[in-house]
Amino acid sequence: MSEAGLQIRTMAPVGRYALRVDWSDSHESIFALAGLRTRCDCRACESSGETKDAATEIDRAETLGDASLYLRWHDGHESFFLLPELRRLCRCAYCIGEPERPITG
Ligand SMILES: [Zn+2]
Ligand SMILES: [Zn+2]
Fold first, then answer.
1. Which domains does the chain have, with CATH numbers?
2. Residue 87's CB: how many other CB atoms inside 10 A?
């Protein structure tokens, strides 16, 4: 499966602090929202490095086209993640269990 074809089939919140993503290749990821917030690399976050007081709950989560994920946080902040980038943040047993075989392969 090439990254270019990677898409999000469905996603749903898991409680208030995590987001479940079902990928087009049948993989399933659970992302801790706090973790995603710290990975936001928008200019505001990069320059301030200030995520300590950042909201870790989301008001909205939606895919933009078929290439990225948009998250709107409770404090009004917005984050965008390219899907291949997001997928690399997956820490499920399968993804961390095969470091020699990155999903990009
Ligand atoms: Zn940001
Ligand atoms: Zn995974």
1. 3-97 (3.30.2020.30)
2. 20
CA distance linking residue 7 with residue 18, whole number of Å: 19
Task: State how far Cα 23 lies from the chain centre.
Answer: 12
DSSP 2: -
Mean pLDDT, contiguous 10-residue spans, the chain (105 residues): 79 94 96 94 81 84 92 95 95 82 55
Q: How far is the CA of 65 from the centre of ligand 2 (A)?
A: 22
CA 2 to ligand 2 center in whole angstroms: 15
pTM listed for this prediction: 0.83
Question: How far apart are the C-alpha atoms of 60 and 86, rounded to whole Å?
Answer: 16
